[in-house]
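Site-specific recombinase XerD structure dump, as promised
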Amino acid sequence: MASFRKRGNSWQYRIKYIDPATGKPKEKSKSGFRTKKEAQIEAAEVEKKFYLRQHSVIANSETILKDWLTEWLEIYGAQCAERTLFNRFWYINNHIIPSLGNYKMNQLTRIEYQKFINTLVEKGYAKKTIQTIHSIFCTAINKAVELEMVTHNKYQGISIKVDEEEKINYLSRDEVEIFMDAAKKSPYHHYIIASILLRTGMRKGEMLALKWEDINFENKTISITKTRSDNGVKKPKTKSSNRTIGIDNTLIADLKQYQLWQKKNKMKHGADYHKSEFLVRCPNGKEIGEYGVNKTIDSILKKANTNLPHISPHGLRHTHAIMLLESGADLKFASERLGHSTINMTADVYVHITKKYETVNLLKLESYLS
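structure tokens r here:
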């Protein structure tokens, strides 16, 4: 049974209970209520939880969010990939904790959390970034629910409304010509990076993991069986990403020229030439990493000396897919070549292209029937 008393200008409740973990008597108290009625309402909720044996919820209700988020990262961080852990650490320490860290687990309301999300929108963060932050926070709260630190996750279904202009991350046919002309005027290893990404549609990490043994010049194919990041080499993300794709005569010629270029550089640098098993390398044999590929594409765009859209290496993958579809390739072929898990995924990503050609094909059908 709760007891109440007035302390100065505010009210306090006190509840005595037996801790089921130790069998010893304990006391739960809270002050600062403006009226006795307010204290009675909250005390009734706490007693209800005691009755339902939710002692751990009550014990953890005073936990500060930043303490739980830090503990969650330490305990469960090892269960995810290094890049995922890095992203979680970054967003938690640079966005979530600075804004919400000092709230108690039971204190942060849905409205306050919505205000936090709205602030991210107002600051101009991309919708995908905000969704990532929200997902990380909800994952941590869901674990707290599982551990009976809180009763439920009240932050699910939060509204994230971002009016984003469609960002262009691909090149048109004319822009591809300008881009590749600039690539040809760049160092040869820059050109080969652009050529591989544009003519295969493979992901940046898949290209970085390529070895010469993955190229079959006779059959004109490339086998994509792994991916490489700054954290090392690992298997492709999905089963469908493990694939062998055909390559055109232009890329075959480029790769043969690149192989000869590497041999000349090896002779030129002699003992100073770096040994590596990977295909994409600098003139001195050093491996190129993720950041190096980004810098390469940026360098080519600058060399183009015209108003090309600023695309990422992944933008060349998009460009390849769009050129495939525009040239008449069907969705199944494009999906398998890109290593998508389903045709639906390809259709969803390139819906603007598929809708365009749906109209064209309907007009063709109408003409045929007429």
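Strands lie at 2-7, 10-18, 25-33, 215-216, 221-224, 227-229, 232-234, 243-246.
lmk if u need the other ones
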